[in-house]
Amino acid sequence: MSRTVYRAPIALGVRGLGFGAVGLGACVVGATLIRAADVDGPLGVVLWVTLGILAAVALVFFGTGTARAAGLRSRLVLDEDGFLNATGPGAGVRRVAWRDVRKVQADGSVVSVDVAGSRQSLIRTSALDVDPRELARELRSRLNRNRGYTPLGSAQAERVDGVGR
Length: 165
Hints:
This protein is of the alpha+beta class and 165 residues long. Helix content is 44%, strand content 21%. It folds into two domains: 61 residues; 73 residues, PH-domain like, CATH 2.30.29. Strands 1-2-3-4 form a four-stranded antiparallel sheet, with no helix packed on it. The radius of gyration is 25 Å and the shape is elongated. Keywords: Membrane, Transmembrane, Transmembrane helix.
């Protein structure tokens, strides 16, 4: 089995980077206007605090967008041993071996993988660039190959005691 990596689209990171840059630019313009108007007293405090909060939010968007555009984004890695689920917080079990997988099912935009020990791994496909049903089929196929199962009709019939092919 080969290694397959599903990632979030890079456009998502670039979009966050852009929103953050525009927000920081707007905060610089706002700070310049507040400073030029020479606002003092309670109104000045409210304006500066509001501007600080908006700048912090814009900085978070900018930082998150930069990290995602640089490659530190949500991903799902499928390999010979199992899979690594890094699609966000609350995903459950992050690293799962194929021998521990009990059931795979697609529920809307989430692929649920039941794991040994009554645990679960939730793969959020909305964070990835893949269809949930297609991913569930890929997971089932890898699980079957790992267990040695073959599709019906693909195995050669063996000759037993002169009977058969």
